[in-house]
Specification:
Chains: A mainly alpha (about 120), B alpha+beta (about 500), C mainly alpha (about 300)
Number of strands of chain C: 1
Number of helices of chain B: 14
Strand order of the largest sheet of chain B: 4-5-6-7-10
Number of helices of chain C: 11
Distance between the termini of chain C: 30 Å
Largest sheet of chain C: none
Radius of gyration of chain B: 23 Å
Shape of chain C: globular
Distance between the termini of chain B: 59 Å
Helix content of chain C: 55-70%
Oligomer: heterotrimer
Radius of gyration of chain C: 19 Å
Number of domains of chain C: 1
Largest interface: A-C, 65 and 79 residues
Structural class of chain B: alpha+beta
Shape of chain B: globular
Strand content of chain C: under 5%
Order of helices and strands of chain B: HEHEHEHHEEEEHHHHHHHEEHEH
Chain lengths: ~120, ~500, ~300
Amino acid sequence: MQSWAAVLSLLCLLGAAVAGVYAVSLLLAPPGPLGVGPFLSGARPQEHALSRYHARWYAVTLVFLAFDMEMVFMYPWALVVAEVGVATVVEMFLFLGLLMAGVVYAWREGAFLWA
Amino acid sequence: MGLSDWLTRQAARRPRPLVVTAPYGTRTRLRVERELARRGWPIADGPAGASLLVVCGIPGDALDKAIRTVWMDMSAPRALVELPHGTDPAQALDQAVVRLADAPAQRRDAAAHLARSRPSAPMPAGREHDGHDGHDEHGEHGGSPGGVPMAGRGPDRDGLALDRLHVPLGPILADWPSGLVVEATLQGDVIQRASIRLTPGFWNGPGPESGGGREGSANAADGHRDSADTAGEHEGDARGGGEAPFWDEPWLLASRGHRVTRGEAERRRAAAHLDSLGRLLAVAGWPAAAATARALRDRALAGASREDLMPEFGWFARRVGRSRLLRWMLRDLGVIGDEPPDTGGVGGGAGAPGTGGGAWLSGGGGVGDGGGRPGVGGGAGAGSSVASGVGVGVGVGGGAGSPGAGGGAGLSGRGGVGGGRFSGDVAARLDRWLVATGVALGALDDPSILQDDRGPRGPVGAQPSRALLAVLPGVLEGVELGAARLIVASLDPDTEQLGALRHV
Amino acid sequence: MSEAVPYGIVVAFPVALAGFTVVAAVFDSVVGAGWSWRAAGGPLREAARLLVQQRRRTLLPDTLLLRAGVCGLLVAAVLAGVVLPLGERPVADPPVGVVWFNAMEVCVWGAIWLTGWGTNSCYPLVGGYRFVAQGLAYELPHMFALITVGLGAGSLRVGEVVAAQSGLWFVVWMPVAFAVYLVSAAAMAFWGPMDRPVGSDIAGGVRGELSGPDRLVFQVGRYALLVVAAAAAVPFFLGGGAGPVLPAWAWTAIKTAAVLAGLIWAAHRLPAVRMDRFTQVSWLVLIPASLLQLLVVAVVVL
């Protein structure tokens, strides 16, 4: 069997298993669904929970994105270090050093604290 | 339906209970928790994951409404276990298992439940305090999907305009003081404003709810007694397990002239602190340590001897006290400043002769050397945290028989959170509980007569929980939800205490 | 992804994953009950309960997103797992297997957030966002740990990563990367001390409103994810199936079980970690530490 076919068949199997769970529930459980309220310690909601959430770690997400982009370069880099030699290591760690400087700056600005 | 019935029976042997505590239900709650631990039934977080709703004590109207709401949100197989004072939890839980295993009955319940819930589908925007059932309001909100409006915006602490959610914390919430409701206004997971109230039945009516203000909250505890409260019919002596603040019981009895030994009182004190520790550790996400604390609590209440309890408590206190991870997570949370040092009781080890069993903890510095000295009055450094002194109190035993009973000497911090007892951060309060538990366990055999009124949370007559509740809104504002839970658990106000004056 | 795979592997993979998932749930229950073997039947009884539980639906949920999130956990676990060798070889051994593994487990972010969002309930929403914050804290150290492995092997093919450890296991000369990997593995499976997205302090968080089959699939997905995260430590750091006497598949199973047991034990041994505290440490300690580890490995392979 080819790899892609194997992965595909595993996914199908998983799909069948999950569908089976839902089917068994449909067959065995009492009819539903019951309309219930979100759990609020015994109260009913005054508004929908879906809202513009206060993501206080917003600054961290920006720093994260800067690093995450860079990870895309690091995977191929890892393959050529031994071939190309010292220059790759120096260049990459200069780049990482720059990013870390950004991290230190963000830290001093309090970006990683949000409590 | 053979397979369905079989699965239902299999599932029934391990229900997931959700436990609710009504006013003066602490004694019942403790028995239930012990029984659940013995059976190894894991506690549910909320109605979605629960199959058993256990009500300890007799809920008043407001709590009853909350219980019915949660019960409506639970789906079959489910069973409701109501435990008025004095019922045997083991028997009631056994019966619940039988009901859970009865598949046909569960199917009937499910069908009836579905029929009831269908018409108005989910629920409408209920202003919780207006007494409406709410279902009739459905459809009144034109632009509100499902009858519930979208979140409105409000100014944020950083000057942004953000959506606000109104979320009540309590009364039905795991590891939460019974009857306490924190009406929180959330932006994201930050509590922007908080006000507290107690569900009626805990000796306050719908008192003035001036949101967030300290004075409003303090008043909330003063309200009148709800006339619909069933508790009145259960007037009884404190020993009977009816309506009495469980943790303060020995001191209340002593104040009424009953003969109570210091050892008995210290046993109750140790159990009270272990109960608080169990709660805090559970909220801190350390269920194993919480289970240990609760097992120790149960054994202490069951009358285990000092020699029996000390080794395991020592092990527990060391593990918890030395956990750097826990300390890192708890420090700088919910900092309560030192109120003006009230030297009467705090620093006055020498000045106040025989301050008794040594649970008057300010800094803890003096606690450890209580052994052998009559009275443990030390604590010279008022309010300093016990950073490294955890476990010091373990093994204290010499001072147990101290005859000193100062008769209320050094009742500092009366009515306030001051005196250092609750000052500092969550970690400091945890340390103080650990030390105080060790000291109390050391005094289990003290046969002398209890004469003071220094209960687990402070002078019983002064109702320290009232002051704790007054502090609460202030320390919760601007705090993230998880941290808020830790802060509440670290103060662990005893809502039963607020009615205590009626009995004295 | 074009090499031929023996049918045995394709059959063995789901069996092994399901088996380890059940074992993990049972062991977790036993440890959680204070090493009481009576609790061993707990997960199966819970599964039975969820199968016969009447379904419930919160107020105006986004059912599509909710289901996508609930099932997404399992899908992510399976897809991440296909590159891990069961003994001699995996189901698929693409030349970028390490990247594939990384990419698949990042899908967990989406799955959890969608689950939290979909129920239209406050606590699950808070839990979902907690996991986003957790992701920001653990993901970079995690990726650096994986890159260190790729660098040490000079390849991103998992089979070659294992082959590169025939002399010396990576855990020996990249201990920091291994430690960072374990921490991030727990965080990825929102497990152990990193379980605040489903914390009891917010009434169960993301899974707070899940019941019936949704809850069952979600829970199974979480354990499967934990199993895959633990199993990945074996080819990446612990020499894959290498070991004396026993065949490769047995060693893989033994090492996976050991890592899994460690993670489960740690979950019950440690208090929970909140991200508002941990993030700073993650960025200022874990990332620099894993970068130093990377530098050391880079110098060695030069």
